[in-house]
């Protein structure tokens, strides 16, 4: 069963043109980009939806790291999250699908604590809620 959140903020963006080779802009004008289909082995001249999703998921998950650390009463000196979003053919089922890797780096905690914080963040992150059971998401953790 899906639970509807009590929404306190709504982001609004509109895509125009030829989809992946079109344009996307938010209603407040803060994001206003031409898009391009990702092409492996060539240097991109415009961003693509997978990059936007990777950036959004990484930022959201990094916020969830702070919330998770607070809930677990753990002090994390610093954190970074690198989001990697892959797209590819689904094979026998047809169409395309996504796969995500989140590379979490935490400073000031041991490996076991870092894993607990990352696992808790994965429980509370809204992007993780949205993707859970829909696409594979791998969370790796390193420390220093």
Automatic annotation (TrEMBL):
Which positions carry the signal peptide feature in this UniProt record? none
- Source organism per UniProt: Demequina muriae
State the similarity comment: Belongs to the OsmC/Ohr family.
Question: Which superkingdom?
Answer: Bacteria
User: What protein am I looking at?
Assistant: Organic hydroperoxide resistance protein
